[in-house]
## 1
Amino acid sequence: MDCFMREAIDGTPAWIAPTGVSEMKNVHFRARRKVEREALREGVLRIAAESFYALYVNGQFVVNGPARGTYTCNFLDTHDISCFLHDGENHIAVEVFCNNYPTFISSPAEPALFVQAGDITTDESWQVQIAQDWRGDVPKYTLQIGSMEWRDMGKEPLGWATFADDSQWSDANVISADRPLYSKRLYMRDVCDLRTSHIQPTAVPVVAETSPTLQCQPDDLAEFITTEEFTPPSSGIDVQAIVTGRPSRIDPRENDKGVAVILDFGQAIIGGLELNLEAPSGTILDVCYEEFIENGKLIPSRFHYKFADRYILRDGSQALNNVLHWRGGRYVQLIFRNFTSPITLNKICFADRRYPIDSPAEFQCSDDNFNRLWQKCLATMSACATDTFLDCPWREMAFWVNDFLVQQEFWQQLVGKTDLVKRSLSLALSQPVTDGLTPGVCPFDGNEKLVLFPTNLFLAIVLGDYNRYTGDGEFVDSVLCEVEKIFNISQQYSDDDLLLAPPEKYWNFTDWSYWLCKDHALVEPGEHFTVDGKKICIVNWFNCLAAKLLAELYTSRDEKKAEEYSQLAKDIASAIVEKFWDDELDCFRELLDKSAPASKVTHSLAILCDYLPANLIKPCTNALYRDDCLTPELYMMHFVFKALAHADDHQTIIETIEKYWQPIVESDCPTIWEANVHEHAKHAFWNAGSLCHAFALAPVSVFQQEILGIKSLENGFKTFSVNPSPCGLMFAKGKIPTPNGFIGIEWVKRDNELGVTLTVPAGTVAKCNGVEYGEGLHKFEMCI
C-alpha cells in the first residue's frame, strides 16, 4: 500500500551505524561529522533514524524525531539548521536510540541513521560510537512503549558533540543494501512538526524521606519503589523555588536516607523531563511518571508496567532529558539517593511535545459543568495527538486503529485539521499481516492476537466519516481501493448467510463492557468473557454499516459498485435480523446460543444502519433503555448517543453524560478517563486505568451536533443543517471547524423560541426550517 504523498529521496539512502549493533537490544549510539559551511549550502538538513534521533549542531540541541513509521516504512524529517551554523568548520552530531524489537511506537529493522545536507551524506567518513553510558540489559518500561532508561552520567563523553572529548570513536559502518532495512520505504514527513512547550511544575504536593542507597537490578526497580515506605521529611526544601524555576537545594539526610519529591504539572504531559542540577558523584536519581498520587506516592509498578527510570549522576553540573524516549502522565516523582553533600536543582521542567492546536473549536453554555467538560475533552484530545493519534500519553502511547474509529471524528469536531487523520489512516493501511488484514495497533509488534478483526470493518467507516467532514475527494480516491480490498478480505470469514465469524486466533474486540461488566455471570470470578472465534451480532452490524458507507463513497465514483455495496448492506441486515433477532427477548441476541446479554451498542448500530423492518424499530429503540442490555464503556457510548439522537431523545443523552462524565468533571483530573461505567478511573484495567483517553470524548459530538445543532448535509459542510436542541439550557454558543472556515452559532432561549445568531463561512450554505442562509452573519428566531 503506497498512499503516502511521495518518496523522500531519489536513489538508495546510505544508512550508517556502529559495527555490531544489528543484533543488540536497546541500543544507543552517537554519530558525528565535521563539515565546512560551504558544503552545507542553504543549510537544510534531512534526517531519518531507526528509530529515534536527537540532532545537535555545533553543540546545540536542535530537534528530535522522527515521525513514527511501521515495519514497512520510515519517515524523513527536514530541518533548517542555518541559524546554528557559522563560517568555517561546523559540527553535525546525532544521538540515536533503537529498541531493536517491535513495540507499539516503533517497529525497527535495525539501529541506523541517515543524514543528508548539502554536499554531505552519511557514509564511512562519519565517526560513530556505541553509547556506554546507557545500559542495554533493561526491562520494558511498558510493552507498548519500549525500554526503561538506566544511565550512568559519568560515562558520557563530555564535549562529544563538538569533538572536544577524548573517547574512542570508529568509522561508521554503511549498512549493506541487502539488509531488511532497505525493504522499508522512506517517505517525507507527512504531518506538521510537533510543538515543544516547556512546562513548569504547578505544585510540589509531596516531599518525603525514603530508603537509603539502593542497589538493585533494573527488573526490580519499579517494584521496590512501589513498596518502599515514604516518611515525613526531617527538613524541607524550597518548593516555591521549584515551582517558580529558581534554584532549590536538597541537603543530605540522617542515616543516608533518600529524598522523594513529587512534581505536579497540573495537566496531562507527553514528551520528556528536563532537569538541570548539581550533585555529588554517584548520586542515584530514580524517576517515576504517573497520573495519580496514591497514599502519598506514585506507584510505578502496575499490572505488567514498570514506570521507572534510573540515573547515576556524575560530579557537578549536568543535564538530564528524555530526548530519545517518550514519557507522560501528570506527576513526576524524583527520588535522590546516595548523596553526602547538597544537591542543587537549577531547573526542572517538562518538554511537552505534541501536535500544535492553535485555533480549536469552541463551546460554551449556561451549564458550567458542560463548559468544564468541553475543556477537559479538548485537553484530552490535545494530549493524545502527536504524529499519530494516541490512546493515552501515560500508559501506552499507542495508535490503536480501533480507537481511531471514534477518535478521528472527535478530532474533526475539535480541531478540523486533516493531516493527522490522513497520516494515521495511511499508516494503518501500510502494515497488512499475512492474510491481508490490518492489525488493531500501529505499528504492529507481530502479535497475531492484536489483529482486532472488527478494525478491518472500521476503516470504511473512518473513511466515510472523513469524507463527510472534509469533502477531500483526492485523498479518498487515493485510499478507497485499499480500504475496499481490506473490507472484501474480511468477507472471506462470512458464511452462506453473509454473517461473519472470524478465526479464534484474532481478537474479536469491539466494546469493553463484556470484559469489565460485573453484573452478569458469564465467567468465573477473575476471568473475562471472550467472543473470539464466535459469530456475534455487534460485529455483523458494523459489517453492515461498513458496506453502507462503501456504497456512499462509490456513489459519485462507480455507480455499479455503489449499487452492489448498497445491496450487500441490505442483505447483511436481513441476515442479522433472521439469525439474531429473538422474539421472546424482543431484542437482538449477541450470540446465537444466547450465552451473552444483548448490547445497547448492537441496537444502536441497527438503528443507525437504517435497514430494520418497520416492526423492529420500536423494540430496537426500547433496548437502549433496558437494564438487561449491556451499557457500553465510554468508548462505544458514541454510537448510543447517535441512536438516541436519531430517536430525538436528548434528555436521556444529557442524563447519561451527567451520570458517567460528571464525576470526571468534579474530579481533580484535568482530562477524561478511559473507563467510568463498569470500572472507574485508575482502578480500571487491573489498577492501570488511564485518566487521559481520547476515545472517551462522546459528549463533544453531542455538544456540537445536538446542543449547537450543526450537522453536515453535504461532504465538507458545503451545506449544513441548523437545528439546536436546548436540552434544558438557557443559552449556548460555539465555533465548528469546516474546510471553509468556522461556522459560528449562538442561541438564547426565550420561552418557546430560540434567538439564533449564525455565521456561515464562504462557500457553504446553512439550512434551517426550510430557509437557506448563505455566506455572512444572520439573525433569526426559531420555534422549539
## 2
Amino acid sequence: MPKFTDTPSVFWVSDPVLPDETVLVSGAFFDDTASVEIARLPDSGDDVADWRDASVLQRSDQSLKAVIPAALPLGVYRLRVRSDAGVSAARLVNAPAPWWLQGDSGAAANAGGWVRVFGKCLHFDRPSVVRLSSGGRIVSIECAQAENYSLTAALPADLAAGAYAISVSNGYGGDAGFVDSGMVTVNAVATSEPAVVSVLDFGADPTGKLDCTLAIVQAMERLSGLGGGIVTFPGGRYRIDSILRSGMFIRHPLRIAPGITLRGESADTVSLWWPDKGEPLPTLIEGGHDFGVEDVSIYTQGRHRNIISGESNVRIRRVRIRANCYYMTGENGRPHHRRSIDERASAMGTAIEVWGENVEVTDCDIYTSATCFNLKHLHNGFVARNKVRASNMVFISGGSNIIFEDNSFEGNQLASGGNNIALHFGASSCRHVYYARNRVAHIYGGDHEALTFDGHGTAYFGLVRQSSADSFDLTAAPITGRTSRDSMATLHDVTAYILAGRGAGQYRSVASIDGKHVTLAEPWQVAPDDTSVVSIGGFNGRHLIIGNIAEDTGAVVQLYPPNCECIVAENKAIHASNFNIVAKLGVSEDSPFTRAEASWYNQVLDNHVVHGNAWGGGETEIDRWLGGETMLNIWGWSVSFHVDQDNADQDRPLTAADVAALLKRPQPVAIPISRYQVVRRHRIDNNSSIRVRGTVADCVIENCSLSNTYKGISIDDELPRDQEEGLDMLCFAREGFREPGTQPYLAPTQILVRNNHFDRLGTRYTGTALCDAVVIEGAVGSTSGAGEPGD
C-alpha cells in the first residue's frame, strides 16, 4: 500500500450502523497508518468529543472497515480518519440524512396537510422530530409516522402560509443532531368553495343508453368560463362514444380543461363506459394540467389505448378502471359470441399515463390488459393504496421525488411481467423514488421481476487530462445518438464517475460538455489525475426500496446498472427469485462503444427470505432471473461478457489484452465496477444463499442468518461460461477451486464476512475467491480459516 502525503479524505460512510457493527468508509489517501476514530454526540449538554479508536478489520488505500465499539451506546457519532499525513474532516454517522422533501401538494404542502422527509437514519427507537422555522418562529412536530427511511409530519391547520426551513432529529445527538432538510412552501387553507355543475343539467342520460359526450363537454366548458370547478355525476351509467376533450368532439379525447374535476357520487354507483371501437382511441380521458377524476368507475373493452392521461397537478382518486381488450372473447382474442380481437391489435396503452409535476393517484381499483401506471419524467408524484391487476404494474421512467407505496399488484394473465424504475423515454437520470410496502404476486412472463432497474447509457469511458476540482478534459469525444443499444441518446443530465485511480468512488452531475471539456455541477472532493478511469453516463439511484413483498415472481429487487446509493431494506421474498445488485462493463467488437455502468454505495438491510424455493433454476448465465432459489447476488458483471451492438453474444470473456486496450495501457487495470456494498441482517429461512461474484470491491456481509439450505455464502471470481459447465445447480463454483490462469481483474477484492449465523446448513462458505476474503466469526479478532470453515 503506498505511503501518502495527502491528508485522508472521507467520501461516504455506511449507516445506519449499530454498536458492534462494521462501518464501511470510502475515501482517498488511506495508507497503513490510517486509523478510524469515533466519538458519540451527547444527547444533551455540551458537545464534547470523546474520541476513541475503532478496530480496523480491513483496509485499502480507498476504504476502511472498522467496528463501532460494542460498549458505545447507540447514537449519532462523529467519525474521522487519522494517518501520519493528517486527520480528515469529521463526518456524522447515524445522523439524519434527508434526501428529499415532499408535501401533500407536491413540492409544497397545505396548512392542515402533511410534509414528509425521505432519506436514511431518520428514526431509531426514540421519537423523531420535524422542526419548521420561519422568521424566527420555530414549530416542532413529533412525527405521526416514523421509520428509518421516512418521516411524516402533520401540519397544524392554523400554520401561517409561507416558506419554512425544515430540520429533523432522530432523537439522538441533542441540538447538534438536528440536520437541515431543505425548504417547503406552506399554502394557506382554501377559503372559497369551487363552482359545481351536474351533467344532468346539460342533458346527460344516466341510463347508459344514449351518448353523453356532448353533455359532459358542455358542463366542463361552463365551468371553464367560471375559472374551474367540479362536474358532478349523480348515480347512473353514462355512455361515452367519443374521447372526452373539452373544445372538441367526435373522435377526439375528452380533454379536461385546467381547474376541472370530474366527480361521481361514488365508484359503486357511477360508471362511465365506452362501447367497442373499430379503431382504438388514443386515450379516453385526457387532461392538460390541473384536473381531477374522482369517485367513478370506467369501463371499456375491445381495442383501446390509454384510459387517463395528463400532465402536472393531476388528481385521480377512488377510481375503478375495468379495461380489458379481450373482454368476452376466446383465448387470446379468438371469436366468441361474435366478439373477437386481432391479437396484434391488443391494448398497447396504459391505464394511467402521467408526467410533469405533482400527480396523485390514490385508492383506485384497476384491472387492465396492459400496463397500469406509466410515470414519465414525473416529479413529486404520489401513488398509493391502489389495487391493481394488469400485465405490468408500473414503469417509472426518469423523474424524481416519487412516493409509490402500499399498492398491491397481481398478474392478470400467465404472461404478466414485472415493474421498472428506469431510464427510458430519453431520461438520463432517475432519483429519489420511495417504493415501499407494495405487494407483487404471480408474474411469470418475460423477465418477471417484481422490481427491476432498466435503461442504460454510457457516453464515455477512459482516461482524463487537465483535471481541476470542477472540470476536466476527455481524451476522446463522447459517443451519443444511440450508436448502440446502451449508448446515450444525448448528454443532457448525465453523470461522471471515477471508476479507478485517484479519486475513485466519487460521482458528480455534469453541468455541461463542450467538445471534450466537461464542467461539473459541483466540485470533486479529490480531483482525478492521469491515473483515473472515468465514465460518463446515466444515473439511477438514491432510491428507497422498503418493506415490499414479492410472492411467486422473478427477482424480488434487481438493481440493474447503473445504480448508486440505494437502500433495499425490510423486503420479503416468498417463492421468488433473487435480490440482485449488478454492475457491468463490456465492449463491442464492431464499434468504439464501451458500456461501463457502476453499482456503488448500496445497502441491503434486514430483508427476509421466507420461502426460497422459486420457479426455474440452473441456467447459469440467466440465474438472476431463473435461479431456482432466492439468491442474494452482488455481481460485478464487469469483464466477463462481450456485448455486441444488439446486446447479444454475451458469452466471451474479455481477455487481458481487451482490458489493456480499453485504457491504451500495456497491462490490464482492475476496474471494480461494483464498489462499497453492505449486506446486513439478511435472514434466510430456507433454500437461499448469498453470493459475491466478479469485480466487486469493498463488500461487507454481516450479522446475516442462514438456515435450512445447502450452501451459505460464496465469494467467486467471474467465471467464463465454459468454466461453469458441470457445476452444481445452485450456480456456485466448487469450494476452494480457482481456475488456473484466472486474471486479477476478474476477482472480488476487499470482501469482509463477519458475525453471520448458520443453522442446519450444508456448507457455510465456498467459492473460488474465498481465500482472498476476510471471514470473521465471533468476537473481533477471532478469524476462521477461509479454507476450513466450521460446520
## 3
Amino acid sequence: MRELAGLHALARSLVHGDDDADDLVQDTAIAAIEHPPDEDRPVRPWLATVLLNRWRMDRRGRARRQARERALGLELAGGNVSGEPANTDAADAPDAIDRARTLERLASALVALEEPYRDVVIRRYLDGQTAAEIARALGVPAGTVRWRLKTGLERLRTALDRSTPRWQRALVPLTAAKGAVVVKAKTTVVSLIVLLLLLGAGMVALLMRGDSDQPAAKQTAATGSGGKTPASRVTGLGSAAEAVPRPDPLPGQGRVAVEPVAAEGGVIGGRVINWSTAAGVDTAELTFTSAAGAMTVRTDKHGSFELAPAAPGVFSLTTIIAPGFLPYAPEFEHSPVRIALGAKQAVRGVTLFLFPAVDYFGTVVDAQGAPVAGAKVKLADPAGGEQVLEKIVTEWTTDKQGKFVFNAPDGSVFEASRGGKRGWAILDGNVAVTHKMTIKIGDAPARDATIRGKTVDASGSPLPDVLITAVPEDPAGKQPVPRSVAYAASGADGTFVLDGLDRKAYTLVAELDDYAQARKERVAGGTQNVTIALDEGLPLAGVVRDPDDKPVAAYTLLVTQREGVVREVVTTRSVIDPRGRFEVRVPKGDYELLVSATGWAPSKPVAASAGTTDAKITLGAGATLAGIVVDAETGEPLKWARVMREGAGGGASAVPANAGTVTRSDGTFELTGIPPGPFTFSIGAGNYHPKLEGGLVATEGGTLGPMRIGLRKLAEGEQPKIELVGIGVQLAGEGDALKVNLVVPDGGAAAAGIVAGDLLVAVDGIAVTTLGIDGAVARIRGVAGTKVAVTIKRGEQVLPLVVERKPLRF
C-alpha cells in the first residue's frame, strides 16, 4: 500500500484529472491483491508495470470500441460513419438468434481447425498462455508458436467469412460490451467460446482486425467532434506520415533535418527500425511523457511516426513496444532519451532502434557435460535495465534434454540451478552468432545477498524515485563467472533494495533528474544501511554544431572523466533539440564531452569543467566506406550483415552512439561518419565468423572502397572466432599505459619478445595518453606483413620494438 501511494504521479501523467488517476491506481491495487507478485520481486517496478498495462488496455479497448461502433454500429442502424441521420429500421440488426448461430459456427470452425493450429489458439486465447509458455510446453521456438497463431486465426477468419458473411456484425454487441461478464458453464467448446468472447476480447479483436498492412490513423489533437484534448490527456494512436517514405539508402545512418511547420507545439518525426534488418517496424507504440502528461503514437507499415503536441515542451521517450521485439522500457522518468520541441519547428529523420526478440536455445549441463532436466533458469536484471516498465519472460525450466528457449537482450546474465548445484552464463557475441548458450552447473554459492540503503538530498531528507545501479567492480575480462548489473528505484521514503547479488564488491551509482550523479564504491553484496547523498551539482551545458555552424538536432552525448588512457562515462544523454542544445548536472570537477550523431563523424573530446554553460562541440562529415559482404566460400552476397566502426559505444539501445549499418539484400553497404585517421571496422553475420578489418586511413570528406569482405561460415558445433590482423596482444587501460594481459603464441608480439604484464606506452612514437585506447588499437591494427613501432615499459626498462602484423583468430 505504501508503494501504491507513489503511483499517483505516474497515473496523473497518463490520464486526465485526479478522479481518473484514482480509478487507475484502484484498478492496479485490485490486480495486485488478486495476483500478487513473487515475494522476492521488487514491488514498485512491478506495480508500475501493472498500472501501465491497465492504462494501455483501457486505451486500446476504448479506441477499438469506438471504431467498431462507428464502423458497424451506425451501419447497422442505417447510418454511416460521417454521422448522418440513420435509418432506424431494425430489420438488419442482428438478433440473439443470429448471435447464437454465429457463436455455434465459430465453435465449429475452431473444432474443425487442423492441428497444430487449433492447439496453440486454444492455449493462447482460452488458457491465457503466452507464446513463450506455449513454446516451452510444446518444445518449439516461440517464433513457430507466433506463426501458428497467425495462420490459425487467418484460417478461422476465412472459415467464418465463407459460412457466415455477416459474422462480424453479429459479434459487435458482444465485443462492444462495456462491463465484465462472468459465465458459469460446462467445459464444452461452445461454452469456452462464449467465455472467450466475453472475457478474452483479444482473440475477437484479432479476428476482426483488418489488413495489418494498412497505416494507422493519423494522430489527432482533439477528441470527439472538435473537442479540445486536455494537455495531460493521451492523444489518439497513429502516425502523421502520410507520404510513403522511400527506403533509407543508408540504413540507420540518415541525418536529421530541422524545418519550419505550422504546428504551434512543434513536431518530431522519424522511423522505428529493426536493428537486425533496418526495416521499418510496423505498429510500434511510442509513449512520450512530459510535465503536461503522456502522448502515444503508433508507427505505420513503414515504421514512420510523428509526434505533434499541442504546445512545445520537454519530453522523455518513455517506452517503445512492438510485437516480436524486445521492449525499450526503462525505469519510469529515467529514460536517457530527451526531446525539446520548439514552437513551429519540426525535427525530421530521427532514427530509433528496436531489437527483435530472437529465439535463443539454451542447454543446462552438469560438470560431466550431461544435460540437466528440470533445472530452473532465471534472467538477472536485463542488461541496460531497459525492460522495467514492460517485462519480458525471465524464468524457464529445462525439458528432458536440459533445453529451454528464451529471448533476452545482449549482455544478459543467466543463472541455472538444480538442487544445490548452480552456474551462470552470459548472452555474449558468441551466443548472438550461434543462437546457442550452454550453462554448466556445479558447486557454487548462491547469489542471494542484498544491498539495502537510502537515498537522501544534501540536507539529509529522503529522495524518492532515484535510480540505483549496482555495477560489479571486477572488469568483465577478469570475471571467472559472469556477474550482472542490478537495478532498483528508491521508494517514497528513499529506501532501496538491490537483490540477487553475490558477496563481491559493487559500485553503486545513483541518478535523478536535476541532481548530480552520486557514486559509492567498494560496497560488498550483503551490506545494509548504505546512505547515498545526492546534491544538485553544477550545470554542464552547450551546443552541438555541424561544419557549417548549424545546430545538430539529434545526437548522443557522453560525459566522461579521464584517468590516464581510460575514459569513464559519468552520464549519457540522447538529445533531440532543434537548437542543438544540451544541459546536464554533474559534480564539481573536470570532464570530457564526446558527441555522436547518425550521418556525422563523432566529435573529438572537448574539455569542460562543471559549471560551464557555453561549451561548443563541432561534428565533421567524416569519410564514407563502401563495400560488399559475401560468403568467403561461395561468393554469395550476405544481407543484413552488420558493419560498424570499432570504437566507443554507449547510449540507450533505442539511440546507440555507434549504430553502424547493415548490408542490403545484395550484400552492399556504405558506412558513413568515419573520423579522420586510422580506423578499424567490424563485420558480423549470423552463423559466420566475425571479422575486424584495419589498416585503413580516413580523410575528412573522403571515400574508401569499394571493399569486398568475405566471411567464413561456421561449421556444425563450431564456436565463432574473430578474424583480424594485428600483433597478437590483449590490452587493457592501466594508468598512463595499456597493460598486456595476454600474448597470442603465434603472433608478432610473441616473436618480438613482448610478454604478459608489459606496459605499452607509445605507438609509432605517439604516447597512448594522446591516442587513447581506441586510437592506439587502430594504429596497431593494419595489413598483414607490415610492421608497427611500439614502446614497451617493463619495470624500469623502456624497450622500443618493431612488431610484425599477422592474421589472427581469437
## 4
Amino acid sequence: MVVGEISRLDAALVGRTEELAFVSAALERGGCVIAGAAGVGKSRLASEVAARHRAAVVRVVATAAAGSIPFGAFGHLLAGVASDPGGPIPACIRALRGLSSDVPPTLLLDDAHLLDEASAALVLALRESETVRVLATLRHGERMPDAVIALWKEAWLERLDLQPLSRRELRALVEAHLGAPAAPDVHARVFSLTEGSPLYARELLIDAMRSGALAQDEGRWQWTGRPPEMARLRDLIAARTRDLSDEARLALDLLAVGSPLRLEELAAVAGEEAVAELEAAGLAIVRGLPEAPVIEVAHPMFGEVTLAALPAATARRLRRRLAAAVDRHDLGSFDVLRLALLKLESGASDPELFRRAGAYAVRLEAGVPGPGWDGDDPTLAIRLAEAAGPDLEAALLAARGLMALSRFGEVGERLAPFEDAAGRAPFGQAVEYLHTRVYALHWSGRTEDALVLLERAAGWRDEVDWTVAQATLRGWILHDQGRPQTALEAVVTLPQLEGAAPHIRLDALLLLAMVQSRLGLTDRCEALEAQIQRLADELEDGSRQTGWARYLVDGMARSEAARDLGAVAARLVAGRERAEASGNDVLAAALAMVLGRLELTRGHARDAIALLEDAVNGLTAGDPRNALGWAYAHLTRARALCGDVAAARGALAQAGAIAAERPSHLRLHGELERARAWIEAAEARLPAARERLHRVADAAGEALAAEAEATYDALRFGAPPQPCAERLAALAARADSDLLDACARHASALAAPDAAAQLQAAELSRPSAAKARAALCQGAMTPALIRIPARAKLTPREREIAILAGRGRTNAQIGRELVLSVRTVETYVLRACRKLGVDRRTGLAQVLTLDGAPERAANPQAQPANETFGRGH
C-alpha cells in the first residue's frame, strides 16, 4: 500500500478562496466531489486542501486503461491484500483503518468518472464505513459508474461544481506566473483563449515565453507579434484528438479556421457523421436556435492549437472550401464578416465585401461622436480597409483601427487626402471623418491644426445637426485642454440645440454636464439629468455613449462635489452590475473607474484599489475619453495613499505612457502631475509634493475643480493654511460643491488665530481619532496619520528626513532624494533623534509608528499635516 504526504504544486493557487473554504469544511464532514471541465483546476484545488489537512493521504488516479480491469485504479493499494479470504473490499477497509487511530486518512481520487465498477463500489464502501474521508474529482459531461454518482446523490459526499477563474483571478494568476505586470492586451488574450482555465493559461504562458511571443519591455510583459509555438498545449490536447477518424479531424480543422460555422455548412463539407463524432468527443458544441444551429469548438484553445499545427497552404485551401459553403446563403451581418475573413485569409479579393465587413470588425456605436475606436480587433479593421481599396469609406475604416491602437499620426495621413470627399459625403460619414481626424490631430499634439480644421468644416454643411455637432466637437477639444468655461460657451449659447437630432443633442448635453461639473456648477449639472435620461431612453441603442449618459451626473458632478455619496455609490454599483450582465464590458469598466475615484474621495483606499484595478483590466487604450489613463492616474493616488510606492510608480508609468501619446490632453497631464505629488508625499518628500501641487493649481486656468483639488492636497501635505484658505474660499464662492465648501471651511479653521477654532480643526489629531481614521481609511499611510510629539518641535526639513530615516533609508539614499550631502543628512538625523529622545536612528521608527501606521502631528502649527481622509475627500 502506498501512502504519502501530498506536496503542494509549485504554481501558486490563485483565487479560489471561497472554494478552498467550502471543500475544506466538506472534508471535515466526510469529503467532497469536485466536478468541472478539463483544465479548470479540480486536481489543483483537491491537492491544496489535502495538503492543508492534518490526515495521511492516500492517492488514487483513475485512468481509462485501469478502468478496464476490476479494481484497476486501486491495484497499487491492493497488492498486499489481494489474497485476503474476505475479499478486496473488507481487506482494504482493514488496511486503511490501520493507518491511523486518530483521524481517518484522506482518499485523494483523481478522475473518478474513469473508475471501473468494482473500484467505484470500493470507494463507496470506504466512505459508508467512514474508513476514509474522500476528495474526488470528476469531469463534467462524462459517463460514470452508479456508485460514483451515489457518492453525492446519497449525500455521502458534498459536491462542488468548480467554475473557471474570473477575469480578476486569471489576471492575478498570469502576473504570478510571469513574475511582473503584463499589458492589458496580454490579459485580454489569455482570458479569451483559455476562458479562465488555469491549466490552459499556465501552458499558454509557458509556450508563449519560450517561443518569444511574450517578452518584457521596460518591466512589463507584452505580445511581440510572434505566434506562440504551443508545443506543450498541443501535447496536452492531443489526448482529446488522437482517436478521431479522418473525417472528424477534417471537421475539427474546418472549425479551427472558421469557427463558428452554421451546422449545415460544416456538415456539407465534412459530413454529418464527422460532426456527430466531434460532438461526442467533447471537441465541438452546437448552440443557437433549433432552426438555425451554429457549431463551434468546445473550447477556444482546441481551435487555436489545431490552427497552429495546420500548414499555411492547407489552411488557405480549407478557407476557400468554407467560403464557398458560406456564400450559398443570404448574407446577414454575421455571414458578411465570416465570409470576408475567410476570403481575406485565403488570399481572395472582394473589395465590396471587405468594405461591408469593415463595419463589424470594430465595435460600432450608434450615437455621434461614437465612431467605435475601442475596437474588438482594430488590426483586422486595418487589414480589411487595405484590402478594400483607396476611398473615403476604406480610409475611415482604417482610421478606426489606427485610433484604437493610438497611432494618431497615421490617422492624419490616411484621412487628409479625403477632406474634399468628406465635405460632400453623407452626414454620418462626414461627422465621423471630422470627429476622427480632429481628435487624431489634437491627441498627436496639433490642437491648433485641429481647431483650424473645425473652422474649415463649419462651411461644409448648413443643417442644424452639423452646426451643433461641429460646436460640440470643438467643446470636447477645449475641455481636454482644461478650458471648461470656454467649452461651455461653445455650446450653451447655440440657439439650434433644441432642434438637433437626439444623438447630436445628447452629446452636447453630455459635454455641458461634464464641463459644468469641472466648474463646480453641480446644481446646473443636475438640472440637465432629466433631459439626458430621456434622450438615453429614446435612443436606447446599446452603445457606450447612451450607457454612460445614464450615469454621468452621478459619476462626475455628484461624485466630485461629494453630494449624497452613499446613494450615488449604490446607483453606480447597480449600473455596473447591469452592464456586466448585458455584456457591456467597457461601460462596466468605466463605472468601476468612477466608483474607484468615489471611494478614493471617501478615503476607502483598499476598496478604491480593487475597483480601479478592475477598471484598468476592462478599459482599452483607444477609448475616446481616455478613461484608461484616468483609471491609472487614480490608481496611482490610491496606491500612494496606502504607502505602496512601487505599485504607485508602476501605475503612474502606465498612465504616463498613455498621456505621452496625447501631448495636448492637458487635463490628463495635470492629473498625472497631481499623482506624482502623491508619490512624493508617500516618500515623505512633502516640500517637493507641495511645490508640485502649487504649480498644478496655478496652471489649472479655467478648471476650477482641478485648482481646488491641487490646492487642498497641498494643504493636506502641510502648506501654510492662510493662503490655501483664501484660495479655497474664493473657489468655493464660485461653485456649488459640498466637498469644496468642506475643504474651504477646514482650511479656514486651520488658518484661524483663535484657539477654539484651531482646537476644532485639530480634534482629529488625537491618538484615538488617528487609530479610528487609520481603520476607516483601510491602511492609508499619509501625512494625516503621521504623528510626531509636539514637544519635539521639528523643523519641516528635520521632520521629512526623520520619516525617511525611520522608514529605513540610508543617509546616502536620503541625500540623493533630497539633493543634500550625506554629512548634511547626518546632521539632520542627529538633531531629530535628539529632539525625539532616541539615541539611534532605529528608534525613529518606534517613535513615528502607531499600531502599524505612522502617527500624526499633535500640533498642526508646529508640524503641519492638514488632511481630512475619510471626511469627504
